[in-house]
Design a protein that fits this description.
Layout lengths: L3 H11 L26 H17 L2 H13 L4 E7 L5 H12 L3 E8 L2 H10 L6 E5 L13 E5 L7 H14 L3 E7 L3 H14 L3 H12 L4 H10 L6 E7 L3 E7 L10 E4 L1
Parallel strand pairs: 1-2, 1-4, 2-3, 4-5, 6-8
Antiparallel strand pairs: 5-7, 6-7
Helix pairs in contact: 3-4, 6-9, 7-8
């Protein structure tokens, strides 16, 4: 495994590629550094810490909590599964919020990177009834179906076809429903996060990947197209725009009759 400095030099040497102006009319599929399997653990950890700060202060955790509440009804117990759980910061934020309401929680976190799972276990030591699985989500063995499955800042790492498959997997494996919290592709979001990350971030992963993540993000039309292509008869999905430049896509299985055409609505 390379050291942080060695890895950073290698990355810079590989990325001497002429930059073209960003095209926001379509999703970018340029690879993010975070998807590289050889990133040193110290760099992954710093990236996860900064993402937790961003989610806390730019509303990402609040959107995730809203997604949970929209599916909870009056339940006092809930099993929640996150795919692409990263450092576990979403699970911490959910537990903190639901515990105040007297709701008993059980968590499953799934991530393909063993370094992310290692850090997530460190980062969530105070959580009870929490299980982490290091695997591709498609290969993860769940001891029971979770009530709610969600992902946050996960889908933009994949192609539209992959996202459709993620949606179908969540539908098959969730008891109550699922949701997606992910980025809007927008010029203001791109330029803002590029400026902020260069000013305040000490992570080269965040500085490189944060603006690129926006380019890989979604428009409303993208979501309507992807959700409509999912093989879920009678799919009913809520598509909400949320500040700052996020989409919250929510599907309740209670509202899917099992036949008929898809019903997608923007709020």
């Amino acid at each position: 495994m390379l050291s942080s400095k060695e890895y950073y030099r290698t990355v810079n040497a590989k990325r001497k590629i002429p930059r073209t102006p960003p095209d926001f009319s379509r999703r970018s599929y340029a690879p993010e550094l975070l998807d590289d399997p050889d990133i040193p653990f110290a760099d992954i950890k710093r990236n996860m810490q900064e993402l937790e700060f961003i989610n806390t202060h730019l509303g990402g955790h609040a959107i995730t909590t809203e997604g949970i509440l929209s599916l909870m009804s009056n339940r006092k117990q809930v099993h929640i599964c996150e795919i692409g759980c990263g450092g576990g910061d979403n699970l911490k934020a959910i537990e903190k919020y639901l515990s105040r309401k007297g709701i008993e929680t059980c968590f499953t976190g799934i991530d393909i990177k063993d370094t992310c799972i290692q850090y997530a276990k460190e980062n969530t030591q105070h959580l009870h009834n929490t299980n982490f699985i290091c695997a591709d989500y498609r290969d993860a063995v769940l001891s029971e179906k979770p009530d709610i499955i969600f992902s946050s800042l996960f889908c933009h790492h994949f192609t539209d076809e992959d996202v459709k498959n993620i949606i179908e997997w969540k539908y098959r494996n969730a008891k109550i429903g699922f949701f997606i919290n992910d980025l809007q592709r927008h010029p203001l979001a791109f330029h803002s996060i590029r400026i902020l990350s260069n000013m305040f971030s000490s992570s080269y992963l965040v500085k490189n990947d944060a603006p690129l993540s926006v380019q890989r993000g979604f428009s409303k039309d993208d979501w309507f197209r992807i959700m409509s292509s999912a093989n879920i008869p009678g799919l009913r999905a809520s598509i909400k725009w949320k500040w700052a430049f996020r989409w919250l896509i929510t599907v309740s299985k209670d509202q899917i009759p099992g036949s008929g055409s898809s019903n997608l609505y923007n709020e």
